[in-house]
Amino acid sequence: MKLLAISGSLRAASINTALLELAARLAPADVSVELFAGLGDLPHFNADREAEPIPSVLEWRERVRTADGLLICSPEYAHGVPGSLKNALDWLVGGVEIVDKPVALLNASPYSTHAHASLAETLRTMSARVVPEASLTLPVRGKPLPTGGLATDPAVVAGLRASLHEFVRATQTARPPQG
Ligand SMILES: Cc1cc2nc3c(=O)[nH]c(=O)nc-3n(C[C@H](O)[C@H](O)[C@H](O)COP(=O)(O)O)c2cc1C
Questions:
Q1: First vs last Cα of the chain: how many Å apart?
Q2: Ligand 1: residues whose CB is within 6 Å?
């Protein structure tokens, strides 16, 4: 099973990206979690250019299409979804790549409720399948990172493991029978 992890932050030291990187390390052996690193390379969405073969957009669509599910972890900016993430989603609206795709929404802050709710609403509008059992808030933002990093915080590790477990279960039941 292949999951695509998407961070809504472009910052090198992003806590949202760090959570996704840890999720990738904690994933069971038969589950690969790949981080999509190209959000910042996508041009601004323009409906006039939707049919154009823009390499970064083609790659983004293909990565979403070939993933069994998406793990999204995003900060909130001014009570909204960061523009780069919303822009990436806008490039998918006209296609079928995200339709019925299971999505786990992770949130690094209990205070960032507006962006989380808005993201869930956007994804549902795009006919993605947000999996509530796998979507959770891990209150790590604003706290000093433990010396050994997030991986040494037992609550974070347990939360991510539980989210992945539920997500794999929900994603497997959503897959068409193999063979
Ligand atoms: C421009 C800007 C606007 C922000 N607005 C909010 C906000 O409305 N609500 C909130 O909870 N945090 C807000 N924050 C705090 C970010 O969510 C926080 O810094 C987060 O850790 C950034 O994620 P990252 O570490 O993954 O880059 C804002 C930060 C920035 C830079």
A1: 15
A2: 9, 11, 14-16, 75-79, 109, 111-112, 141
Length in residues, the chain:
179
Strand pairing partners for 35?
Answer: 5
Taking the CA atoms of 35, 79, 161 and 70 in sequence, report the sign of the dihedral they define: negative
Q: What is the pLDDT of residues 78-122, one digit of tens each?
A: 999 999 999 999 999 999 999 999 999 999 999 999 999 999 999
Domains and CATH numbers, the chain: 2-174 (3.40.50.360)
Mutate to test the pocket of ligand 1, among 76, 119, 138 (most ligand atoms within 8 A of CB): 76
Query: What is this structure's pTM?
Result: 0.95
HSE-up (13 A, CA, CB side) for residue 5: 22
